[in-house]
Amino acid sequence: MSAPAAPLPYLVFDFDSTFTQVEGLDELADIALAGRPDAAERVAQIRALTDQGMAGEIGFQESLSRRLALLGANRAHLAPLVARLKTKVSESIRRNGNFFRQFADRIYVVSSGFREFIEPVVADFGIAPEHVLANTFTFDEGGNITGCDPQNVLSRDGGKIRQLVLLDLDGPVYVLGDGYTDYQIREAGLAHRFYAYTENVTRPTVVAQADEVLPTFDEFLYQLKLPMTLSYPKNRIKVLLLENPDARAKELFLAEGYQVDTVPGGLDEDELMARIEGVSILGIRSKTQVTQRVLDAANRLIAIGAFCIGTNQIDLTGAMKKGVAVFNAPFSNTRSVVELALGEIIVLARRIPEKNPKMHAGEWDKSASGSFEIRGKTLGIVGYGNIGAQLSVVAEAVGMKVVYFDVAEKLQLGNAVKCRTLEELLEQSDVVTLHIDGRAENTNYIGEKEFALMKKGALFLNNARGHVVDVPALAAALRSGHLGGAAVDVFPYEPKTNSESFENELRGLPNVLLTPHIGGSTAEAQRNIAEFVPERIMQYINTGNTQQSVNFPNIQLPAQQAHRLIHIHANVPGVLANINNVLAQHHVNILGQYLKTNEHIGYVITDIDRQYDQEVIQALRAVAHTIKFRVLY
Ligand SMILES: NC(=O)c1ccc[n+]([C@@H]2O[C@H](COP(=O)([O-])OP(=O)(O)OC[C@H]3O[C@@H](n4cnc5c(N)ncnc54)[C@H](O)[C@@H]3O)[C@@H](O)[C@H]2O)c1
Ligand SMILES: O=C(O)CC[C@@H](O)C(=O)O
């Protein structure tokens, strides 16, 4: 964006909890009182007084003098305070440092805090000492802070109003602050607008009076079409999280500045269509079906996060054609599934699913019948991907022989032996375990014919996807006694929430262990997933990096001092040439560019060297076959 045509209104910034994330006096107290036995109590009292003053519950003068009395601070504490405050500048203000430097002559910091620590902090943003209006400390001979200069208008009640009168600014004035005293400037008719600044603290009494609420400074710049570092304020990005991913996911998205909505359990197609409008990031697990209809209803969707391994519940091609990148957590819960599978093999081999309920019913059935050690037995792993391969290693460690079958060529681990066909594996395995993915072609992959090929008394495990097994055929093989037992974690239809009952023909069969799709449901896995997926999505949104996307061409261009443009288009000849023609026509130099295509789309990251203007952006959006175009920064 280019500089505004009309002069910028004067911007009057509060300092504490607005320019910085914290209150200067609170931090000073923290430093000055460190090591004192009553430190915590005094700091708490000071914080309470700050809040009461800011919310307008007690007069400013009273709040200030009572805080200074509690402080016990000295001149020597000021240098560490300034160093600390420099690290606590509000994120969005730091991010837009260039804006402050460019418009420093239109910006004032008017604060009831103290010049001694404000001036050096805002100086880094190009704001001159004469544009800082704040209190000054008084000191005794020993350098102890005794109070504040009583002649300074800001030390008195209504001080900011008087200061604005003295300033006598000749043009519109916009005030940005978190406190009631900031609003009072507007109330007194000395400002045209008051923006309640809530990036660090939200005071309901102040928000209630505001012309606008600013969760970040980006939002202010965006609303006023002023030059900004990001192209779009993060607080406008809406995230919808379904199916209870670990709370860490919400925490990370909130920390990034996004708005986050959560819906426990899943939503069906119509419910999701009704909720998806305006959502930029959708987070789901294995139950939610993201269909073409859902994608068509999604007017702002940028990315989908599958907080799991499987992505068969998402129309990946449909999403790609809409320019929506999908990310999953390809190995965050792998180990959890492996451990479950190993446990299940042992539990089935000892017929625990039958013995445990009998014990609870008071029946003592001590017998070795049908029970065996797993040592020396053959485990047949169908699908030698991340889970299958790791199970192979663990199973060998407990003495099993491993054979595997995979449609793709895979590295053979340990002493595992590859089978050329599924049939070869089924015929020789004492235990068959499925770890194939949920692609549509795998529907009913294991049915009557495959069960018949398995050894009499063999055990069968499905921790992959419900639809890959013909469940009635499995039930028949168990009922007939051909199979010795089964463990099943996934089902063609799974209840949407914990309150829906589970219906399936496997219920009540002997030596059958049923679990409610909890292969990946461990604290460790869920936490890993909840960090992995948001991290990938935020990388994509912030840098355009598509590494590990499951449906986009994977590319990454190193960060450099540049403006970055992202172009997603239908993969037809000539689009890159057209993009570059637009840039050439507008004399925009390309610093770096990377295009990667797949059979449906092309994905281009372009770094350009100069401030772009709206004309270039419009022209790039208009390039034929554009699916989505984003300016990152
Ligand atoms: N129960 C759970 O909670 C849980 C947790 C995690 C993963 N999963 C599921 O486990 C499965 C495996 O996960 P992963 O991370 O190992 O996946 P992966 O993609 O790493 O491995 C899957 C392997 O199966 C192979 N394959 C696909 N179709 C095949 C077929 N018809 N015959 C033989 N091999 C075939 C692929 O070539 C690949 O090597 C997936 O379906 C995943 O959704 C379930
Ligand atoms: O936790 C889930 O919903 C799915 C777990 C698992 O099936 C996966 O695909 O990772």
Number of strands: 24
CATH architecture descriptor of the largest domain: 3-Layer(aba) Sandwich
Global structural class: alpha/beta
Instruction: Kindly report the name of the CATH homologous superfamily of the largest domain.
Output: HAD superfamily/HAD-like
- What is the domain total for the residues? 4
Into which percent range does the helicity of residues fall? 25-40%
The portion of residues forming beta strands comes to 15-25%
Please tell me how large the radius of gyration is: 32 Å
* Count of alpha/pi helices: 25
Q: What is the CATH class of the largest domain?
A: Alpha Beta
Lateral arrangement of strands in the main beta sheet: 16-15-14-17-18-19-20
CATH topology of the largest domain: Rossmann fold
The main pleated sheet reads as: 7 strands, parallel
Q: Ions, cofactors, ligands: which are bound?
A: nicotinamide-adenine-dinucleotide, (2R)-2-hydroxypentanedioic acid
Low-confidence stretches: none
Shape: elongated
Mean pLDDT: 94
| N-C termini distance | 10 Å
Written account of the structure:
Belongs to the D-isomer specific 2-hydroxyacid dehydrogenase family. Pathway: Amino-acid biosynthesis; L-serine biosynthesis; L-serine from 3-phospho-D-glycerate: step 1/3. InterPro entries: ACT-like_dom_sf, ACT_dom, AHAS_small-like_ACT, D-2-hydroxyacid_DH, D-isomer_2_OHA_DH_cat_dom, D-isomer_DH_CS, D-isomer_DH_CS1, D-isomer_DH_NAD-bd. This is D-3-phosphoglycerate dehydrogenase. This protein has 633 residues and is an alpha/beta fold. It has 25 helices and 24 strands. The strands form 5 sheets. It has a 7-stranded parallel β-sheet, with helices on both faces. The longest helix has 21 residues, at 523-543. The N and C termini lie close together (10 Å). The structure holds nicotinamide-adenine-dinucleotide and (2R)-2-hydroxypentanedioic acid.
